[in-house]
Design goal:
- 13% of the residues lie in helices and 31% in strands.
- The protein is of the alpha+beta class.
- It has three domains: 179 residues, Jelly Rolls (Sandwich), CATH 2.60.120; 171 residues, Jelly Rolls (Sandwich); 172 residues, Ribonuclease Inhibitor (Leucine-rich repeat, LRR (right-handed beta-alpha superhelix), Alpha-Beta Horseshoe).
- Strands 1, 2, 3, 7, 10, 13, 14, 15, 19, 22 and 24 form an eleven-stranded mixed sheet that branches. A five-stranded mixed sheet has the order 25-26-28-30-32.
- Strand 25 and strand 26 form a beta hairpin.
- The termini are far apart.
- The protein binds 2-acetamido-2-deoxy-beta-D-glucopyranose (12 copies).
- One 2-acetamido-2-deoxy-beta-D-glucopyranose (NAG) binds next to strand 28 and strand 30.
Length: 549
């Protein structure tokens, strides 16, 4: 049973590796700020794309040469960055390409400042995944490589926003964005609820002092080398690459090496101190201990140990099996009184050998609770944005979070339901062309201000279908009459409608002579039009009088 499950996932993974573009299906790799539109990465063999088309703002910058020459061959993505000197929130829009809800993804954002702006001030800024705060990016030094990674279920299969938010500590920037589907039948890195953000992923006693990733790791996790001091004794096996994998699919080169405690210096126990002081304070940590026995023990030898976190015994006694990967998961709430997490692997009394550890991952649980804007509203406003090539800084989710509401939009926020767009003000926004039918897709709209643009054509009847609409301002455009009667009816029924006089002019055969706005007014007056509206729509009268004075 276990075996057949393993084969199933192995086959699935094999299938994934057959994607287009050199990339396994659903893998998306973006080299932010790259000047090459695409290239094949030497280490992974993945095709990396430039971020053209994934973001609308920011500028390409190059890190300074002194840092560029220090990069390993598998770190090409750090050579360029995209920097965002303008605006508070700037976003990337990705599409989870497997396209069915229920697929988990791992997303990774990578940052290396590299003094690209010659300011020698490594910035700190916030990162959002969609509408939710993800983490703070603290770059600290020009040479630091910062990775933010999270395993999550996308809220929508239509779009995935990754947003960088300027918090007043330098301009946000980004080096790379990597999206990986996590197709494992929900077997690994499962949390009760929420998503798992990576805190640390370490290869203890690394065979080479370099980050390991794809192709060694089918999931393209990044394994950071963790080199211990003389309190740790490095051990390894020469028994080749054949360490039996479990569902976590740890690469053999990671499992082939491990640390034991240096019993001459300390005692028989292996301690790991985790300092989360610079990360947002999560409530729950998930620990993944990966181990395999890599020494051939004699008959009279044994290795047995317990795992405890902050003094709480979480597992044991455990006996690693020779050349077989075993993964043990522990959760721990919070830190000790010293602000740190103390992990101990302690030898049991019966054990002749000290504990060992091959690899360790620490995640923190994060709950993404913010609601995204109603999908139909998102589609409508996106269509409006592209129809008129709106040049406002309209990025990420339109309504959420509230602090980053799109300029010109008003939204309603109702507890557990999706925010809805209830007002749209595109006055003086340089709009050309006819009034787009997409406006009528914003079905909750209460106010629409399109005044002072160059909109042409007639006023469309579909605007009358917006049943909540109370304010409609179309003044100072190049619109023509006639005004649809349905809209006129609405204006008798509480809609404050503002249009230029000439639009009114076409209600019945207009004056064919040399027409001015005042002749249109005369005409309207003759038709008792204004009079009939006075009682119900003060706003309209006000606008009308103003335009003709
Ligand atoms: C994984 O979990 C999600 C959410 O609970 C579910 O929609 C999906 O069907 C699951 N996938 C598999 C393969 O079980
Ligand atoms: C494995 O251990 C031996 C000593 O026991 C050492 O000489 C060798 O360099 C180690 N190899 C690796 C890859 O760590
Ligand atoms: C273990 O500790 C002793 C005493 O400090 C030291 O001489 C030895 O080099 C250490 N072993 C390793 C592998 O660092
Ligand atoms: C790996 O295991 C297979 C059998 O499972 C064996 O034939 C092969 O020699 C092993 N390779 C190494 C390098 O140990
Ligand atoms: C936390 O941030 C401070 C200030 O940037 C830095 O000095 C310190 O080394 C950081 N601590 C850790 C554990 O990263
Ligand atoms: C195990 O037996 C070997 C001899 O076969 C001996 O040298 C060694 O000290 C013994 N180890 C332990 C822990 O008793
Ligand atoms: C240790 O275990 C106790 C009892 O299960 C629990 O109340 C406490 O929160 C745990 N402490 C940590 C640091 O996990
Ligand atoms: C594990 O060992 C350390 C160091 O020897 C000790 O401080 C700690 O109390 C031990 N933990 C348990 C649960 O025995
Ligand atoms: C430890 O050894 C004692 C005696 O040698 C034995 O009775 C006991 O079952 C062992 N305990 C474990 C956990 O193996
Ligand atoms: C739209 O915005 C302009 C300023 O940009 C403002 O004068 C006008 O009152 C707004 N319209 C509505 C309906 O709020
Ligand atoms: C109308 O728009 C133009 C630019 O499109 C702007 O210069 C002007 O100030 C706007 N007028 C009003 C009244 O907002
Ligand atoms: C409108 O009439 C004025 C004089 O009353 C004349 O100067 C102007 O050319 C006419 N315009 C058009 C478009 O006929």
């Amino acid at each position: 049973m276990v075996l057949s499950k393993y084969f199933l996932f192995a086959t699935l993974l094999m299938a994934l590796v057959q994607g287009d573009d050199n990339n396994p299906t659903g893998f998306l790799s973006i080299d932010c700020g790259s000047l090459d539109s695409s290239y094949v990465d030497e280490t992974t063999g993945f095709t990396y794309h430039s971020d053209e088309g994934f973001t609308e703002t920011g500028e390409n910058r190059e890190i300074v040469n002194a840092y560029k020459v220090q990069l390993q061959t598998n770190e090409r993505q750090f050579r360029n960055v995209r920097s965002f000197p303008e605006g508070i929130r700037n976003c990337y829009t990705l599409k989870p390409t497997l396209g069915d809800q229920g697929t988990r993804y791992m997303i990774r954002a990578r940052f290396m400042y590299g003094n690209y702006d010659n300011e020698n001030l490594a910035p700190t800024f916030d990162l959002y995944l969609g509408v939710d705060f993800w983490d703070t990016v603290l770059t600290q030094h020009a040479w630091n490589r910062v990775n933010k990674e999270i395993i999550f279920f996308p809220k929508s299969d239509d779009h995935l926003y990754v947003c960088l938010v300027n918090t007043g500590h330098g301009f946000p920037f980004i080096s790379a964005l990597e999206l990986r589907p996590w197709v494992d039948g929900n077997q690994t890195y499962v949390s009760k609820s929420g998503s798992l953000g990576l805190f640390q992923r370490s290869d203890l006693n690394p065979a080479i002092d370099q980050v390991m990733r794809y192709k060694e790791d089918v999931y393209d996790r990044l394994w950071s080398p963790l080199t211990g001091d003389n309190r740790f004794v490095p051990i390894n096996t020469t028994k080749g690459n054949n360490i039996t994998k479990n569902i976590y699919q740890l690469p053999s080169p990671i499992m082939r090496t491990a640390y034991e405690p240096n019993i001459t210096i300390h005692d028989d126990n292996l301690g790991i101190l985790i300092d989360p002081s610079n990360s947002s304070a999560p409530l729950l940590y998930y620990f993944y201990f990966h181990f395999a026995e890599i020494q051939e023990l004699r008959k009279n030898e044994s290795r047995e140990f317990t795992i405890s976190i902050n003094g709480n015994l979480t597992h044991g006694p455990l006996v690693p099996i020779y050349l077989v990967t075993n993964t043990v998961i522990s959760t721990s709430g919070g830190t000790n009184s010293d602000g740190k997490i103390h992990v101990w692997l302690n030898r049991t009394q019966n054990s002749t050998k000290p504990p060992l550890l091959n690899a360790l991952e620490v995640y923190w649980l994060t709950e993404f609770t913010q609601q995204e804007t109603n999908q139909a509203d998102v589609n409508a406003i996106q269509n409006i944005k592209s129809a008129y090539q709106v040049t406002k800084n309209w990025q990420g989710d339109p309504c959420a979070p509230k602090a980053f509401l799109w300029d010109g939009l008003g939204c309603s926020y109702g507890g557990n339901s999706s925010p809805r767009i209830i007002s749209l003000n595109l006055s003086s926004s340089g709009l050309n062309g006819v009034i787009s039918p997409y406006f009528s897709d914003l079905t909750m709209l209460q106010a629409l201000d399109l005044s002072n643009n160059s909109l042409s054509g007639t006023v469309p009847e579909f605007l009358a279908n917006l049943s909540s609409l109370r304010i409609l301002n179309l003044k100072k455009n190049k619109l023509e009459g006639p005004l649809p009667s349905a809209l006129l009816e609405r204006s008798n029924d509480g809609l404050s409608l503002s249009v230029d006089a000439n639009v009114m002019g076409n209600l019945t055969p207009p004056p064919t002579t040399n027409q001015t706005s005042s002749s249109a007014e005369d005409w309207c007056r003759k038709n008792k039009f204004v009079v009939s509206l006075v009682a119900s729509v003060e706003a309209f009268l006000l606008q009308f009088v103003l335009s003709t004075s």
